[in-house]
Fold these 2 entries.
Entry 1:
Amino acid sequence: MPPKGTVFLAVPLPPSFLLPRSCLQPSKRAAQQTRSFGIKSIEPPKLNPYNNAPGLPGLLSTPRAAYNRKIQADVLPLRTGALAIKKGMTAIYNQETGERIPCTVLQLDSNQVIHHKTMKEHGYWAVCVGMGRKDPKNITKPELGHFSAQEVPPKRYLQEFRVRDEMGMLSVGEQIKASWFLDGQFVDTRADCKGKGFQGVMKRWGFGGQPRSHGHSLSHRSLGSTGNGQGGGSRVYPGKKMPGRMGGQRVTVQNLKVLQTDDEKGIVLVNGAVAGPKGGVVMIQDALKKAWPDAPPPPKPAKVAEEARKAVGAKLGSAPQEKLKTE
């Protein structure tokens, strides 16, 4: 305590730009004490960058939640698809207008339902479709037992087709013919495109190459400069187009119109080009972005109940190899 009679003089403070920064900003300890005593901070509350609107539920990362989001977004087809072999391309002519229409010939080879994936056991609805023929002596014993229990012949190619709900499930053993797709409807095709191997930038990305003038010996098809100077960080940016492996990836071609179908020969004629070489396997399924011209026939109700699964499980130990159906 100062002694009695002490006189205090009011000294004006210097300008703010002359004061140290510690006098202008509160310390971290003072800010922590302010929060601990329950005093409202002047800082705005931090918002979730993935859900800024108040009252909205957070996104769930479970497989069931992801499946429900797909159903709400209408990205799952109602019916199963089929497997086909690409035979090549041809063209047909419109008799009324004389227009030449390029098309791809796809042939279905003994498509048959092999297995089911249910929501209760696997978390989603799917139909496993098999195509082609395979000698029983060339497959493993687990696969042989699976085909024997399902009472279907061995298939060379197997593929799952996801559907929206159990209404799109077909019974095990039911065949899918070319008439499964209606004339005039639109389909989506998925196949592996042709693999080109390791290629340069001119073939892979369409670069123009180096000039053909003096001083460019043996560098006409080369990449050239890849990195920036000092202003760009003196480095090569990620994603730079360079030589590398070309092709061989899965390609989806959407909204191809079905021109003709032939049940006897198993041929589906679609308008336009389909990825992949001749003889490649192509997945065909109803288009997601186009509607049917006519309502498709309702599929037969599939046996996906507990009784059907128990019957299949009972055959696993007693199905001999001689009972395999061969076509």
Entry 2:
Amino acid sequence: MSPKSPQIPPTFGRARIVVLLASLLAALSAGTNYVRSYSPQLGSRLGLTHTQLNLIGLGGNVGVYISAPILGKIVDSRGPKSLLLSGFVLLLAGYSGIRLVYDAGLPENVTALSTAMFALLIACSFMTGVGGNGGLCAAINTTAKTFPDKVRGSTTGLVISGFGLSAFLFSAIAHLAFPGNTSSFLLLLSLGTSFPMLVGFIFVQPIPLPPSEAHHEYLDVDQAEADAASLAPGKQFLDIGPNIYGVKLWTSIDFWIPFISLSLLSGTGLMYINNIGSMAQALYVYSHKDRYSEVDASQWQAAQVSTISFMNFSGRVLIGLLADFIKSRLGLPRSTLLIVVASIILSSQIVAAYIENVRVLWRASALLGLGYGSMFSLYATLCIEWFGLPHFSENWGYLSLSPLFGGNIFSVAFGRNLDAHERPAESSYMPPPPGIPPRQCLDGLACYVDSLHLTIAACICALALSTWAVWRDRRKTLEIDQDGMYGRVPNVIWEEEEEES
């Protein structure tokens, strides 16, 4: 007689809620890569150009995306502990390093930062990107394995929403506690992002599902694998479903369709987020040439960041709830929402292309934040549905490489377009009063609207790809219904059942 299986906590019991809250805390500490409000002060104190500041920011972005497949494979095979511990070390070292360089400043009679110190800043930014992504990867993976399919979209969406709210949270704390003190802000980032990872190290651990919850069928069921699992000693739960990874993943058209569409949509979002300060500045200068205020300009820029961050958070929560609702209540595949997400991001670019007043730029920022946050939550959930849970984090890591392509291409295009419209103040048709930066485009919307036309075209392509993906997913569902496969559970013998018999 086999030994009694350990008692499995209920689906919404205290143990799972603790895991969910700890995962959310880790995610809240992981999204500070988008907190770049200290960049102007960093550049001013260290004599950095805008290009150098962008390269420092790029170091963080590369750290996030390029580490995703490696971290995903680690968490799939070894669990979340090592990622959370490394996240603590990398975030603490990264932000502390940036703070040390900032506090040291430039030596006397030196106007530019040395190459070695500039490289150190890029390396520190890279560490914060890898560390934050490690914490997020561990949190998402654990949540996905701890809650059943019927609420998986909602719970993973909630955790991912913490990543979107991170920038707003830390910016708000800094503004209230020590406004204008960049050194204290960097200290907050170093401690406030790293120590929650230690909390996660203690509490973030997958909890197996009850057998009744774990028994559900997807496509591509490997019956031999299911039978083998039923004979394995101590197998606590079985989540039968697709298990696509490796070569099979990379040769699947169902991987390349979301990869390309995600690249186009996330590239649009990254371009907008990385350059919203320049967009707000251009619109503000255009309507305030004779009464320019650096303080007011900064406030309008900060307002856009806060709007994007809050709507990013909201989108990540709402899309999870909506995805679970349309599947469980309406009988529609979650992929249907791909069309909705692409439409929201497309509308944000269309709206932005017609806004000429900085006071209403929040409308485009709100739409962009909503669509951008919804996008990542939805694609992560679909990654589980289409390719399976056993290698979810590894597969999601590969899918997460897509923003590197779209983000870099669109951001570079935006920068070149803006550079083409900038001109020295003395050569402009109306010389601006003192206070306006010496190289500043004075044409308002015309400074960057061509870049928005590019992203509008990209979003239309993404919308077409999303429609194709929904059609393919729906067709597979209908084929399975016709074959009578839904509701058919493999013949798995559980140890508890054996003991009772």
